[in-house]
Structures are given as structure tokens and as C-alpha cells.
Amino acid sequence: MVHLLCLNSGAKIVALLRFNEQLFLKVLREYNVVNTIMPPYFGVRLCKMNPRPDLSPLKFIMFGGSVMDPATQAEVQSKYNVTVAQVYGMTEMLMTMGCDYTKPTPLGSVGQPRRNVEVKVVDTQTGQALGPRQEGELCFRGPMVTRGYYDDPAATAAAIDADGWFHTGDVGYYDDDGFFFITDRIKDFIKYKGHHVPSAQLEALLCRHPAVLEAAVVGVPDPLAAELPRAYVVLKPGEPVSEDQVAHFVDSQVSDHKKLRGGVVFIDRLPRTAAGKISKKLLIEELNKRETTVTTN
Predict the structure, then answer these.
(1) What are the E-state strand segments in 236-280?
(2) pTM, to two decimals
(3) Which of 27, 62, 109, 276 is the most buried (most CB within 10 A)?
């Protein structure tokens, strides 16, 4: 959709087949890129790069594809003197949410509903509509929302209810002024002793640690608790920190049920999709293959 809007306005587009950090920085300079969109993890890296790269003439950055914590958004904006916004969208919905970037928008917000769009936040267990600052699943209804999935009635029925509401699977809330905030994905919730533990919140805390480059938190099976939160962490090169120290950094800042009882594991890299998102599905598959290989040997 962003590409279509650029084409419609006559803007030049420089597209990368895959997100590559060094190539991205090179393209910024060579093509004098003014506006860009990038995955949130690169925002974290920009904050920790030393020496700091020159992003001029860049003026506007949109972060999208996954959750970015407000602290990182503010830090990128301050360090690089650019306007930073978070955007939200799905293939199934066209321009249902947006910001007027000429007016103040709360940090972390993905904006307000567009015209002709209905939005509600519902309890993930009961489906009951929730009020301001109550976290639940985002649901949309309107002419720009898909009518269903081609030749897949089961998937359509699972996503669109009898009243025409499309259930996104994204968790968030709206404030008293109608600004929406995305906090996690339902499928990424970790279930610990009846509690829903938001992995995105733990990942944001991990990335605030000065030694951590990036992190992914997943649930590991446990016979008593259902799942235990475990963090897979990529460190900045040469950082003298232990896994226990990183775990304590997070555990000291969260409620008891959110603690990293599954531990912290240092790894060399996190698998990504072509769009630059961390793929927890691929991460779990890789780890399962590694454990199977070790067991077999």
C-alpha cells in the first residue's frame, strides 16, 4: 500500500529485495532518500550503533511489521533528528488506521481509524467489547476490509464473525483521544499458569540492555506451568555479560508471572522473513532441529 501511494504521488521508489543493513545505509546516501519504512529491530540497532551512521538527507522514518516500544521510537527520533512514526496494516485491510503527521501523535501510537472504518477492541477470552486503555484483540469492519479468503471458507469463518467484524489477531488498546496502540500478537502470548505473558514487552526490555543487540521471547513447554518464557538473545560483539545477568535485568522490572523462568540463551543470529521480521516459527524449528541432532548424536 505504501508503494502504491508513492507511485500515485509520482515519488521515486528504491526497493530492496531483502532488508540488508549495510546496503540500506548505502542506498540512503546514493539515492538521497527522504522517507523510508523499516522493521523495528533496525531502530534498536540504530540506537546502539557506534559510531552513529549518517542518515542525511533522511527526514521521515516509518516503522512497521512488528511492535516497537515508545522508548526506542523516541531515541531514534532524538539521535537522528528525524520524524518517526509507527504504522499498522494488514494485507486483509487497506488504510484502516493512520496518523496526521502534521499534528502531535502519542509515542507508540499507530494513529486513529480512517473514515468509513469501524474499530473495536474485544476481550480475547469472552469477545466482549472493551473501553479505553483496556487491552484486547483489534477488530475492524468497513468497505476496505476483505470479504474473505479465496477458496478457503474455513479461514474466512475463523477470521470474520457473523456480524462482519474481521478479527486481526493483534492485541492493543486505544486511549481517551482515540489513538490506538499495538502491543502484541495473540499467537505470541506465552501462557504461564493461567496468565498471558506478552512476549513483545519482554523483548522491548531486553533490547534496553546495553549489551543486547536483539532478542526474541518464546514459550517453552512445562508440565506444571504450561509454558515458561525463554529469551533468545543476540549480543553486541565483545560484550562481557552472562545469561543470568541479562535474565536478572528483565526479572527485576516485571511482575512475577512475567519473569524469564525459561532462562536466557545466547545465539549468533535470529532468523528473519524477507521483510525483516523476526520469525519465531523459524526460530523454534531451527532449535528443534538442533536439539534433535544433539539427541541423535
Answers:
(1) 264-266
(2) 0.86
(3) 109
